[in-house]
């Protein structure tokens, strides 16, 4: 994505993407343009609007003004995909991913609660599993960003209990492990609370983990990442106190 000298997306680039979305028309084309739309939506997530109020230029402010229109377009595509699902839910997945990226970049301007409310309905068990998992991963990212690794892991355990597909369980496990890795790099001295550790250990020995060997592998990896943040003695005390 194009960047200006201040490393932000120029107003013209933001407006160009908005115009492409606004005037996209596939009528008369026998072929679907869903992959094009999905790529276009994902490009919105790569835009840089800037966050620091004191450093905002007139151009940056102009770009932010387009944000509302971009979000409305994404929401419209998201709702359209619910009515007429795209191949493997690729459009809805791109919309959810982009909404999450924008929310995390611009949490100063966009209330995370509203984004969560928008994404949460896509966790419905009747939703295509690919979309359902993407929604769960997005909500885990938002939880991690707003409340930290403990809250994200507890939410992961909750979502895992609600997920019936083996593939979905594995994908959630992979994502939770990545969050653990990110958390350990961002704040290597932080503690995982005992309740969360016990919940993960119980999950490791649960029938779900027994029946899904790949999930069990990632749960074990998560515990290894967490254990690496303490000495063995501290880890043992946290678990068994």
TrEMBL record:
One Pfam family hit: TPR_TAF2_C
Annotated ranges, domain Transcription initiation factor TFIID subunit 2 TPR repeats: 2-164
Domain of life: Eukaryota
This protein's name: Transcription initiation factor TFIID subunit 2 TPR repeats domain-containing protein
Organism from which the protein derives: Ilex paraguariensis
